[in-house]
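Lab intake sheet, docking and co-folding queue.

SAMPLE TYPE: protein with bound small molecule
LIGAND NAME: adenosine-5'-triphosphate
LIGAND FORMAT: SMILES
REQUESTED OUTPUT: full 3D complex as structure tokens
PRIORITY: normal
SUBMITTED BY: R.K., bench team

The fields below were copied directly from the construct record.
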Amino acid sequence: MEDSHDSSITGSQEMESIGLSKRSGIYLTWKDLWVTVQDKVGGRRPILQGLTGCVQPGEVLAIMGPSGCGKSTLLDALAGRLDSNTRQRGEILVNGGRKQLGFGTSAYVTQDDILMTTLTVREAVYYSAQLQLPDSMSKSEKKERAEATIKEMGLQDAIDTRIGGWNVKGLSGGQKRRVSICIEILTRPKLLFLDEPTSGLDSAASYHVMSRIIKLAQQDRRTVIASIHQPSSEVFELFHNLCLLSSGRTVYFGSTSAANEFFALNGFPCPPMRNPSDHYLRTINQDFDEDIEQGFGEKRSTKRAITLLVESYKSSENFQQVQQLVNDIRLQINVGSVEKTGSQKSGFITQCLVLTKRSFVNMYRDPGYYWLRFAIYMALCLCVGTIFYDIGSDYGSIQARGSVLMFVVSFMTFLAIGGFPSFAEEMKIFSRERMNGHYGVASFIVGNTLSSIPYLLLISIVPGAMAYYLIGLQNGISHFAYFALMLFACMILVESLMMIVASAVPNYLLGIITGAGIQGIMILNGGFFRLPNDLPRPVWKYPGYYISFHKYANEGFYKNEFQGLVFPNLQVGGPSKITGDEILTKYWQMDTSFSKWIDIAIVFGMVIGYRVLSFGIVKGMEKLKPMIRKCLACSAKKRTDIEDE
Ligand SMILES: Nc1ncnc2c1ncn2[C@@H]1O[C@H](COP(=O)(O)OP(=O)(O)OP(=O)(O)O)[C@@H](O)[C@H]1O
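RESULT FIELD (auto-filled):
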């Protein structure tokens, strides 16, 4: 049976091999592609083992195989998105050259639907259109493109339905999948990667979605690669070529129509009335190793069946043809010919405005972002206001004022951490959109900052006023204005701190713990629990004291409250009255040589510093990841060369 392998594949491929250089579109080839990860004992475990293949304009390639066989890894490797802990070896060429796939050239639809759950389908796609499509397109053109794409994906009936999340039931899983696809095909990219585009869709929806994607591919000679789990026979037939993997090895690469013949000739004919793709997957799934029925009533173990098929493919004429085609593409395609379809994206100002608006709407609709916090602040301020009600101006009120202000600086600002889960969700969306090049890091930071200002102002003013006037802190609107402004500055600072944490620690539970820990240290260093002069002095006071924003916030709040007031002095032997300035220097050991406005300016300066730092971290990570991967690939290559010698 094995002798007949070559002849079984001959003639089954309908790949182009002549006149490639005259063709437009994207030719993607990969040759001897290996991807490895570190295993538990310090060695390297291969995920992809020497894969070779190609995909051409107008074609849709299906990557299939059992769960964990490396489908997503192959997609990620081809799209240049592998994790930094993986190492890649082999050659991936775009139109015959080592080109970076940029915005407008390629798009990637991830397996998880990371969408803004508070938006409707129309809003999600339209905001995305505004971000991705160039400023040269009018608003109405962008709207039209968004609506046409929604229609293409069969979502017109759900157009005004919210995507839905933990608090609101919205779209079904399959509809969310289609929204994700809509967003990525808005720019009509020349190369499209789809990770499980039909997961969660029923067979009719899968068919319609895939046939629309295939139409898109053929319309403008787009190149499409999709990993797919369990296509129905109708969907399977839509694909032009199939890359069948098992444990990172190629079992079959060639036209979908010839796969049946390949399996039959190797002794695994597809039984009548069975979906061919189900048959292939069952034949090569070794997770539940069972005997596979071979032709003529014979049975073989799955492992043996896979080895046989892999070896058979390697020695087949089909494999030679694929290699030949990969070489032809490399030699004939003009390296510089990567066309960019929508390479022009919206400008910085448009991105900032759209992101501000989108984020503002999301914050308004997501109760977990600010509204819950607003309610808690109201309750807290009512509590603080009643506990410290009408604080008076006797000697005992000095300590009480200090305590209540410290509570405001530490706990009330600490609570800003509560919005972190919602913020982490927004960061996930940012990461997906950023990976696909929809907009820049700076636009995101500006958008997030501007959209949060109205909510933070509201929280500082309304509950703040309730607490301020119930307690009876220093009279005068300018004093209250300073109090509210400093509270606002502290809250936006904590949010900026959490932005840094989220850039470095994307998991929100870990993020909350990290953020809470950092704030705990800062509170301790703020100069209240241990007065400034009593702090240890390794070099110049305790360094944490200067880094902690609580120091400046405390100073600002205290100066605002105490300066201008006079209290009776009950200390034996002292004068009968004590001024606010004396309290600041003697009791609280604060530096009064500069004004409270300097303190607030320092806090606002820290806000800017923190936001710039998060920009730097995100940018740095983006730059660092490819560098690390490049270095690792180089060292892996050197090691292999040495081993070969
Ligand atoms: N960055 C990584 N670090 C460690 N292991 C990884 C990494 N990426 C992938 N793997 C492992 O490689 C194997 C293949 O993973 P991959 O996600 O590519 O499979 P898949 O075929 O897409 O699976 P599924 O169909 O279930 O999504 C899995 O065992 C996975 O755990």
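REVIEWER NOTE: The radius of gyration is 32 Å.
SIGN-OFF: pending second check by T.M.
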